[in-house]
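Thread: quick sanity check before group meeting

JM: Hey all, I'm pulling together slides for Thursday and realized we never actually wrote out the predicted structure for the chain we discussed last week. Dropping the sequence here so it's in one place. If anyone has concerns about the input, flag it before I start.
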Amino acid sequence: MDKINTDFLARCLGALERSYTLLVQAPKDSVDYEMYRNSLVKSFEMTLEQSGKLLRKKLTPYLASKKMADALTFKDLFRQAGLHGLLDADAIVRWLNYRDNRNDTAHDYGQNFAEQTLALLPDFMRDARQLKDILENG
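JM (edit): ok, ran it. Output follows.
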């Protein structure tokens, strides 16, 4: 199997983690807080999308064809990862929740949505780091 290049995922995750660090240091009523929050939401979206793209590459050898892998929905990718021992059931539930949250961004960019996303970030960053390791090593 070809090695999966996770450089862009690492950059997205690095931007997410740095923005999170700066956000928690900023006063909640400041422009800086809003800037970092907006950056976090975008970094969350990019990290989530890149995770799915790379997981699709990782799963392709487990499936009958590349066409079959390409036909999987985002959520089915993570279900397949569980079936093939790449992720445990709890991680899959969290990834499906991250996707549901991301789908909401298409409809609600308000403060309430951003705060919901912020609540997910500690687990998301940990899960994304773990997925990056799985993509690279196992």
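AS: nice. The chain has one domain: 7-137. The chain has a mean pLDDT of 90.
JM: adding both to the slides.
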